[in-house]
Amino acid sequence: MPLVVSELFTNEVRHAGGLTGFRLKAGPGKIAVTVHDAGTVPPRRLPLEVIRPGGFGRHLVQELFVDVRVDVHSTGKTVTTVVPCPTGVSPRD
What domain range is 25 assigned to? Predict the structure, then answer.
């Protein structure tokens, strides 16, 4: 969970002009992490290049989490990822 929050926050600050909203929503077996920003350009995955620093975050988020959605609207965009929780584990654990 800390990895996805860190990646989303970092991307908002570095590439989208800053965070304008944040929400966590727990459900059965999952937690949705949502961030909002004022940028209207959707995030993109850069090709992996071992000689270039960075560029791995979007790949990690895309591979490790169940669902990644990007909704662009007139005032910016919303990025939502769904993080699975192991059965029998409460989001508060």
Answer: 2-84
